[in-house]
DNA sequence: GTGGTCTAGACCACA
DNA sequence: GTGGTCTAGACCACG
């Protein structure tokens, strides 16, 4: 799996990593149970520090996306993804809210906004 | 207009301020040309540092939402909101992407996601 | 509040820190809403690295014991402690189980074990 | 005797092994003097590394739970279990302390905690 | 001055 | 060789 980082971005590297791995799972490029590269190898591959990758993995583990298996190393959770909890819905709305507000301000029609969300959804889904 | 801050949030206060003012404009509670409180008074009203309010206003000015006059004070841009530029579209997609990916991972149907976006859109729009 | 670390212990320093702060809260020496020392000052006080303290605070934050307030710094959660969730009960049993088993093996009577737990409970509670 | 391992747990496998064997003795499923499987066979049975089983057995031997004979193989100590030493009491208190503290923090009544310990005690004891 | 992030380098426990 | 822990030192965002 290819990781694309923007080192200039104000989004922390570990967050970019988390997002890309989640997108990898969403797109099906990373299957349930599939092994992920070790902290060290991924770190050297993408040219960041070991601890940065470690932090990303730690977050993914806590949120229930991956497991750290004592024998197989790091793997995508083989059973299932984290469920849609009330906390998740809240977080999702909190994140979407300013995006929607900004779109409204700039005069973007609701239909266009929905179309964009749908487009992104398909972009991610069709990447197999 | 009422500002609701979450001081425990990992979202910086100035960003929360920016978001809430943008939502205020989106909802119509803040009209084009309408005056905003001065840096000093807003800061004391909501109990945050002068710098924090200043930073929020500066960002809003740079993005074209408000104007800062030496004499008239701070007002919502009287003419128009910033347009939908290619840069805006890019930023918007960049922000939406991880949200959509996470929704897919957790098994949220595309229709439900779209419905949520639509709900948020209406929540913001119908506010007075 | 006095922190006692055992640098020779196989228990990680950040875990010892977490435990001692939790005990501080349990004993009432740390009140709800009370401020904790900054990462840096605590680190230099007890002679460990800043990151070690940071990790302890991060865990306490995630578990709901403390809050990182953008203005007041780090404080004990002013509202309440984390509740007794099913996950907590499970974890608690998982931790108690080997301790109880070992006590049985060595011939400790159930009554004595219960008395020891009760003693520890009072030791912690009466420290005000 | 059935061994249940959790390979995702943060508890080392050898520790899980030690705990389960001790619980086996505590429950009476493993009698004094009863033979245990060889390192090799146990390792292949439960699918872990030889070193892991070896480490578990070594610890159990050091603590006085089992004996390792060149010819007879591994057996539960035929004479007696290790006694209640001051060191054991200290270790036990050290382990119980953070568990009790956490229970207090979360508002668990002392009676409930004692009841849980008692329950676990009976769960282990009544197993055959 | 605070916490957050990142890097570099080291040692250890684990399997 | 893996992840886990700890240290040291640095820069930045925030208020």
TrEMBL record, chains A, B, C, D:
Signal peptide: none annotated. Keywords: DNA-binding, Transcription, Transcription regulation. It comes from the Bacteria. One of its GO terms (molecular function) is DNA-binding transcription factor activity. SMART domains: HTH_GNTR. Residues 11-79 form the HTH gntR-type domain. It holds the Pfam family GntR. This is HTH gntR-type domain-containing protein.
């Amino acid at each position: 799996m290819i990781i694309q980082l923007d080192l200039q971005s104000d989004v922390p590297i570990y967050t970019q990593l988390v997002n890309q791995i989640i997108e990898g799972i969403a797109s099906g490029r990373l299957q349930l149970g599939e092994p992920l590269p070790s902290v060290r190898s991924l770190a050297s591959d993408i040219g960041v520090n070991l601890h940065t990758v470690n932090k990303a993995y730690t977050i993914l583990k806590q949120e229930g996306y991956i497991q750290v298996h004592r024998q197989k190393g790091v793997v995508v959770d083989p059973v299932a993804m984290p469920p849609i909890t009330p906390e998740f819905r809240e977080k999702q709305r909190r994140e979407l809210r300013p995006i929607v507000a900004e779109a409204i301000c700039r005069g973007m029609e609701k239909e266009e906004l929905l179309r964009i969300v749908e487009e992104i959804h398909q972009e991610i889904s069709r990447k197999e």
